[in-house]
């Protein structure tokens, strides 16, 4: 029994590490989701969970990103949008940055 538990813990740790792979300074990851912060600069981009997300435009409540080659518009308070096998939802928009939640 202890060997099975140890093996299960190792597998869980490996899966957790796999989820965190691809996270950078602009990405904060938990077990099942990441928070992405993008500056509202031209060409600001980040890789999260193996998918590239690039800032395109924003207004007070809406952000357009290019994700995995597709343009997607996210609206604050609306349901997540699925792109590239991931769920994207808009958390906040400020004058200098946007924050997006990404989950598998």
TrEMBL record:
Organism listed in the record: Actinoplanes ianthinogenes
Name this polypeptide is given: DUF3060 domain-containing protein
Residues of the signal peptide: 1-17
Protein keywords: Signal
């Amino acid at each position: 029994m202890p060997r099975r538990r140890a093996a299960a813990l190792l597998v869980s740790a490996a899966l957790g590490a796999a989820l965190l792979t691809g996270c950078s300074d602009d990405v904060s990851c938990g077990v099942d989701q990441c928070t992405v912060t993008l500056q509202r600069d031209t060409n600001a981009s980040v890789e999260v969970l193996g998918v590239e997300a690039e800032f395109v435009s924003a207004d007070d409540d809406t952000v357009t990103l290019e994700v995995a080659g597709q343009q997607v518009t996210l609206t604050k308070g609306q349901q997540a949008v699925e792109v590239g096998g991931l769920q994207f939802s808009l958390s906040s928009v400020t004058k200098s940055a946007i924050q997006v939640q990404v989950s598998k």
